[in-house]
Write a structure and sequence with these properties.
281 residues; alpha/beta; Spore Coat Polysaccharide Biosynthesis Protein SpsA, Chain A; globular
């Protein structure tokens, strides 16, 4: 039985708040201790930083200006000693194609590839790019972000140097728009072992548009195969913080989205996340 907030007694409300507080404290301590134990083990064993390469997956549409800002932040904040590749997916009828190509052709610092192909959902786009990716680590990003942490890719490589890359693992990058870092990350990185074990990046079968980050984070928590960064890597210019971010791409995505069905599927397919988490262990 679900108790509506308006019908809760004082004690029921108090119990809910206590449980919520306990849950936050539990995950804060669990993730904090885990991070430092792995870090201590890494230093005690005298392990060296491994130069893990990162594949960035970016579906984008009608946002060449935001794309330019993202690229500028990558050029400014990426360490040239740690290789990255940027894979871009555009619709076949992209109206700003020439603007995108002008930016793409100007990039010399890292490998960049683009594809023209139509898909109905963003998760299908991400999975397509994941199939095309080449590097050890895979990170799906948005066109409405900017990297703010200097040498961010080196820092990612350091964190993945603490674990066995032959086994599945994920790293939750912090962004400025997530309050409780120990519950969720909008930008989780997975390693190649994770991708090979599941044969997909995003759960395109179950959702109309988003939910990839929620899915990966829940798999990480269920399997224990995750680590959370302490520094903020990304500034996210999303619609929840800045009203002027509601551009045509955002509005088109909203039309495709069915929040009620997505939430229903999230709960309905919890058993699949449990099965997939067991595969990752």
């Amino acid at each position: 039985m679900i108790i509506k907030k308006s019908n809760r007694s004082f004690y029921e409300s108090l119990l809910k708040d206590l449980l919520k507080g306990f849950n936050r404290l539990y995950w804060f301590l669990k993730t904090y201790i885990k991070y430092h134990l792995l870090t201590i083990k890494y230093f005690l064993l005298g392990n060296k930083i491994k130069k893990h390469k990162i594949s960035l997956l970016l579906p984008t549409k009608l946002r060449s200006i935001k794309f330019k800002n993202l690229v500028s932040s990558l050029l400014d904040k990426t360490s040239n000693d740690y290789e990255i590749e940027l894979l871009i997916l555009l619709d076949e009828n992209e109206e700003q194609l020439n603007d995108y190509l002008k930016i793409i052709n100007s990039i010399k610092n890292f490998k960049i590839s683009y594809y023209l192909k139509n898909f109905s959902t963003n998760l299908q786009r991400i999975n397509f790019l994941a199939e095309k990716s080449n590097f050890d680590l895979i990170l799906a990003i948005n066109d409405d972000i900017e990297f703010t942490l200097s040498d961010w890719n080196k820092r990612v490589a350091i964190e993945f140097s603490k674990i066995n890359m032959d086994k599945p693992f994920s790293l939750w990058l912090r962004s400025d728009d997530v309050k409780y870092k120990y519950f969720h990350s909008n930008f989780p990185v997975i390693n190649r072992s994770w991708y090979k074990k599941l044969s997909y990046h995003s759960p395109e079968k179950y959702f109309s548009h988003w939910w990839a980050d929620n899915w990966i984070c829940d798999l990480g928590k269920k399997s224990g195969k995750f680590l959370i960064t302490h520094k903020i890597f990304i500034k996210h210019f999303n619609q929840f913080h800045l009203v002027n971010q509601k551009d045509k791409t955002y509005l088109d995505n909203q039309k495709k989205r069915n929040g009620e069905i997505d939430l229903e599927n999230w709960n309905k397919y919890n058993y699949i996340r449990k099965d997939d988490a067991n595969l990752l262990k």
